[in-house]
Amino acid sequence: MQATHSTDPRTVWRAVVAVRVPPTDGDDLATSASRRLEREDDVAAAIVEALRGVEPAMAATVVTVEVRVEASAALEDDTAVADCLTAAPGTQRVETVEPA
């Protein structure tokens, strides 16, 4: 049996984030929101666990999602995770971040 060693330690967080999703994105709202959050380098995965709200508009829809975020260990606290999610394309607001 071969031992494996991860060189990419991760932390896991739960967050509620509002993300702007353009109608041309082509996927469902949850997938589009997840993909936008995952564009940040320190976010390995953003799994939408629940849709909390949908705000339709002419140019885009703002969807509020509850996500499980797998982040790099460089994001050491909830403030760092919130800052990272805020920098993701389309993020309108980060409502909460807490350890999973």
Summarize the structure.
The chain has helices at 29-37, 78-87; strands spanning 10-21, 43-55, 61-72, 91-99. With 100 residues, the protein is α+β, with helices and mostly antiparallel strands.
Can you tell me about this structure?
There is one protein chain. This protein has 100 residues and is an alpha+beta fold. It has a single domain (10-99), classed as Alpha-Beta Plaits (2-Layer Sandwich), CATH 3.30.70. It contains two helices and four strands. Strands 2-3-1-4 form a four-stranded antiparallel beta sheet. A hairpin with a 5-residue loop joins strand 2 (43-55) and strand 3. The longest helix has 10 residues, at 78-87. It is elongated. The model is unreliable at 1-6 (pLDDT under 50).
**Order of strands, widest sheet:** 2-3-1-4
Shape: elongated
Beta-strand content: over 45%
User: N-to-C SSE series?
Assistant: EHEEHE
Relative helix content? 10-25%
| CA(first)-CA(last) distance | 31 Å
Q: In CATH's first tier, which class applies?
A: Alpha Beta
Backbone CA Rg? 14 Å
Low-confidence sequence ranges:
1-6
Individual helix count: 2
User: Main beta sheet: strand number and arrangement?
Assistant: 4 strands, antiparallel
Number of strands: 4
User: What's the overall average pLDDT, rounded?
Assistant: 90
CATH architecture annotation: 2-Layer Sandwich
For this structure, the CATH topology is Alpha-Beta Plaits
